[in-house]
């Protein structure tokens, strides 16, 4: 499942609307679902696998891949993805029977984490590494305002989807645990 969500995140990178500096992609859906359905540890690992595969050179990011991608203005979003999957998973794991409101709340917190990491990273990357002098107001527009409304809608939609899929994922986990217990007896 970790590899599957890493692959889905990579696919989401190529379903995009090109915007100046930061393209709008569907990756965030798979980040929300990874945290919600895989849990904190596995959700984080799925995003780390995705980032790792891209950093070793496979072109799975929106603009290619390779170790130098850490200097790209959008790399902060990838860091935010990993942290968001972790926190979303932690929030959902703390609830015995999560409902829509739990998934929505966790996704909104995850969204804030993504933007909380990505926007400052975008500013630092453009101003210090790429020497493209830009203001915080410009960064706010291209890194936040251009896509926050759509991402917020995706957070809500992903929460509804996660609620429906959560039961399936949990029953699969339960069957696996029972099978392992029977094998150990």
Describe this structure in words.
74% of the residues lie in helices and 2% in strands. It is mainly alpha-helical and 185 residues long. It has a two-stranded antiparallel sheet with strand order 1-2. A hairpin with a 6-residue loop joins strand 1 (16-17) and strand 2. Helix 2 packs across helix 3 (75-93), helix 2 packs across helix 6 (148-184) and helix 4 (100-129) crosses helix 6. The two termini are 26 Å apart. The model has no long low-confidence stretch (mean pLDDT 92).
Question: Keywords, please?
Answer:
single chain, 185 residues, mainly alpha, two-stranded antiparallel sheet
Walk me through the topology:
Elements: H1 2-13, E1 16-17, E2 24-25, H2 27-55, H3 75-93, H4 100-129, H5 136-145, H6 148-184
Helix pairs in contact: 1-2, 2-3, 2-6, 3-4, 4-5, 4-6
């Amino acid at each position: 499942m970790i590899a599957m969500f890493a692959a889905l995140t990579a696919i989401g990178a190529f379903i995009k609307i090109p915007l100046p500096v930061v393209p709008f992609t569907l990756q965030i859906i798979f980040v929300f679902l990874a945290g919600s359905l895989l849990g904190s540890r596995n959700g984080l690992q799925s995003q780390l696998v995705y980032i790792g595969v891209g950093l070793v050179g496979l072109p799975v990011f929106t603009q290619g891949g390779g170790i130098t991608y850490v200097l790209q203005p959008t790399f902060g979003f990838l860091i935010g993805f990993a942290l968001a999957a972790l926190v979303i998973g932690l929030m959902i794991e703390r609830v015995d029977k999560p409902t829509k409101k739990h998934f929505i709340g966790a996704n909104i917190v995850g969204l804030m984490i993504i933007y909380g990491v990505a926007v400052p990273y975008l500013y630092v990357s453009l101003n210090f590494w790429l020497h493209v002098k830009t203001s915080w107001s410009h960064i706010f527009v291209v890194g936040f305002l251009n896509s926050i409304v759509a991402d917020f809608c995706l957070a809500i939609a992903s929460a509804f989807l996660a609620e429906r899929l959560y039961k399936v994922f949990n029953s699969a986990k339960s069957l696996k645990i029972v099978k392992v217990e029977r094998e150990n007896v």
